[in-house]
């Protein structure tokens, strides 16, 4: 059996945070933020709104997009860096709130690569005939882990959720087919993207410096790693499935930085106008980035059933991954 995308749903919290709002806080300017990141606005959850809330709404919309009832889902895989609690996982609660019944539901943590990792897991569950349908969600509330005094991270990240429904198909000829995935990691560079405190390596105590409780990133080093790793992963996948770069209709890269997306397109020799970009509107939404970008392009009317879509992402760990599919005949909700 093969996996196919049959539904897509997204959700952004209503609070819109502009560059102007952040410029006033950090004594910077809209031009400084835009020129370095490509971001103009991002959405942040209101206090009391958690990742599970965003994931539940995106999951509900994905089910409606697919035309499925809650009882039709066999497995839930939730990718997130910002779970509702360190323990338990957020996915079982999301499954319960969606009314899915006692289905397997679990979180995975691969930071910004998380959605593609979850997609690969969903594909494998279907290929092994362990599931006929899988709800794959990427959801984040990064605003809850950002240092409010750190300009370099606070202007970049946004909150949001995106979800797809995968279903078993006997062939890959129909639009929506997930044709392949490629994943990788390099823990030798784990310190480039991290939250120092809060785990078993460095438990949080009353004496933990406040800055160590927040997300940190070494931007220039991450930039270089991201372009190289995503490029290598995407190229490996193209060879694996027999695609050539010039036949890719749309490149959907992780929305980390507008300059990374441009550099990635150049490295892959894909015309930059085929790159999907929505970072200007939502910022870096980590595990939610790729499905939000897909939905954005679909709503713009850019995606036609059968179009060849190449997705790739890079995140902390370090982790990276790519996936390829032909665009399905669906309406994102």
From TrEMBL:
Pathway listed: Lipid metabolism; fatty acid biosynthesis
Location of this chain's protein in the cell: Cytoplasm
Enzyme Commission number, as recorded: 2.3.1.180
Active site: 112, 254, 284
Sequence segments annotated as region (ACP-binding): 255-259
Reaction(s) the record says it catalyses: malonyl-[ACP] + acetyl-CoA + H(+) = 3-oxobutanoyl-[ACP] + CO2 + CoA
CDD domains: KAS_III
Coiled-coil features, chain-numbered ranges: none
Enzyme class: transferase
SUPFAM superfamilies per the UniProt record, alphabetical: Thiolase-like (SSF53901)
Keyword entries, A-Z: Acyltransferase, Cytoplasm, Fatty acid biosynthesis, Fatty acid metabolism, Lipid biosynthesis, Lipid metabolism, Multifunctional enzyme, Transferase
Database matches in Pfam families: ACP_syn_III (PF08545), ACP_syn_III_C (PF08541)
InterPro entries attached to this UniProt entry: ACP_syn_III_C (IPR013747), ACP_syn_III_N (IPR013751), FabH (IPR004655), Thiolase-like (IPR016039)
All copies of domain Beta-ketoacyl-[acyl-carrier-protein] synthase III N-terminal, residue ranges: 106-187
Main location (coarse class): cytoplasm
Domain Beta-ketoacyl-[acyl-carrier-protein] synthase III C-terminal: 238-327
Family: Belongs to the thiolase-like superfamily. FabH family.
Domain notes: The last Arg residue of the ACP-binding site is essential for the weak association between ACP/AcpP and FabH.
Summary of the function given for this chain in its UniProt record: Catalyzes the condensation reaction of fatty acid synthesis by the addition to an acyl acceptor of two carbons from malonyl-ACP. Catalyzes the first condensation reaction which initiates fatty acid synthesis and may therefore play a role in governing the total rate of fatty acid production. Possesses both acetoacetyl-ACP synthase and acetyl transacylase activities. Its substrate specificity determines the biosynthesis of branched-chain and/or straight-chain of fatty acids.
Subunit structure: Homodimer.
Identification of the protein by name: Beta-ketoacyl-[acyl-carrier-protein] synthase III
Source species of the chain: Streptomyces camponoticapitis
Lineage: Bacteria, Bacillati, Actinomycetota, Actinomycetes, Kitasatosporales
